[in-house]
Amino acid sequence: MDLFFMQFLFNLNLKEILTSYNWFLIIGVLFWVLIAVIQDFRKREVANWWNFSLIVFILAYRFFLSIELANWGFFVWGLIGVVVGFILANIFYYARVFAGGDAKLLIALGAFLPLTNNFNQNIWIFCLFIFFFILAGSIYGLIYSLTLMFLHLGKFKKSFIISFSKYKIQTLSSILFFAIVFGVFFLFNLAIGMILAGVMIILPILLLAAKAIEESCLTKFPPVSNLTIGDWLTTKVKIGKKIIKPNWEGLSEEELKIITKRFGKNKKVEIKYGIPFTPAFLFAILLLILLAML
After folding, report:
1. Is 240 left (phi over 0), alpha (psi -120 to 50) or beta?
2. How many angstroms separate the CA atoms of 284 and 131, rounded?
3. Backbone dihedral angles phi then psi of residue 72, each to the nearest 5 degrees
4. Is the pTM of this model over 0.90?
5. Thinking of the domain 2-130+276-293, which architecture would CATH place it in?
6. Which pLDDT value is given to residue 196?
7. Coil, strand or helix at 233
8. CB-based contact 227:250 (threshold 8 Å)
9. What is the reported pLDDT for 217?
10. What's the number of CA atoms in the CB half-sphere (13 Å) around residue 278?
11. What are the sequence ranges of the domains in the chain?
12. Which of 11, 124, 267, 273 has most Cβ atoms within 10 angstroms of its Cβ?
């Protein structure tokens, strides 16, 4: 399997993407994504104008380079990449993997990723990027969550105990069932079955831990003056006859104006923050470039 994978990478020949004109594009995109990461950590959002300016930068560079090279394939592939990025971004967004700012950043990176004029090469570049994105995102998310857990260990323990008490029967029943399944696979010496059952044994605990981290580490009470469009309410807010409900898209501009007008700027509202996910994009690009340099 390892030999097949290495042979596949050799045939893919990613070194072809490291041309002089691609290096300018790569460095520019890394700069844009790095600023997006800083924005995400500081404000928990990436400005729409920053994401859209990245699309403009990439397509403008592709356009003028295509004129210089007398080859419009480079620009056309950028447009195709925007469409592919838009499709992938909507899949991730509606699957609730990440929020709107991340989706717009993925659309912009869609314009960047077709780094050759070869159809097969570009398809595999997209596939490798998504693989690295998921891999980097999983590792980064785990490290970030564990860091939050240890920084708020007391609050985490309290929240975890409450969650476990609430779902104790379901959790223990699930663990017992999959422990029996694991035993059956063990008797028949089915390694894949044992791995899957083993994962399912610890999954209920991981879900409870994730819920405890969310409630103890990612829930805050900022004043209304600090709220921004896209912030996630944890509970319904009743203002007169109007009820603003929590939803995946977060607060709209109109809802934010209503809350500010009704409560003033100093009243505190319970908000749930997500894990800043833009670093996963940065890591995925770096991994792709490092692989091309090997």
Report:
1. left
2. 8
3. -80, 0
4. no
5. Up-down Bundle (1.20)
6. 81
7. strand
8. no
9. 85
10. 26
11. 2-130+276-293, 148-218, 220-272
12. 124
Q: Please give the Cα distance from 140 to 40 (Å, whole number).
A: 15
Angle ∠(86,89,91) on CA atoms, nearest 5? 110
Let me know how long the chain is. Answer: 294
Cα 158 to Cα 262: distance, rounded to the nearest angstrom: 34
Region for 208 from its dihedrals, namely left if φ exceeds 0, alpha if ψ lies in -120 to 50, beta otherwise: alpha
Backbone angles phi, psi at 188, to 5 degrees: -95, 5
Q: What whole-number distance in Å separates Cα of residue 125 and Cα of residue 2?
A: 19
* C-alpha angle 36-41-44 in degrees, rounded to nearest 5: 90
Beta bridge partners of 239: 242
Which pair of structure tokens corresponds to residue 113?
A: 């990723």
pLDDT beneath 70: ranges in the chain: 1-13, 265
pLDDT digits (tens, 9 = 90+) for 119-159: 888 888 898 899 899 888 888 988 988 898 898 899 899 99
How many of the other CB atoms lie within 10 Å of CB of 261? 10
Joined together, the tokens standing for residue 11 give: 């045939």
Classify residue 235 as left (phi > 0), alpha (psi -120 to 50) or beta. beta
Q: Which two tokens stand for residue 158?
A: 């309290």
Paired strand residues for 268 = 223
Q: Report the alpha-carbon distance of residue 36 to residue 43 in Å, rounded.
A: 10
Alpha helices in 188-277 (DSSP H): 191-217, 253-263
pLDDT for residue 3: 47
CB 78 within 8 A of CB 62: yes
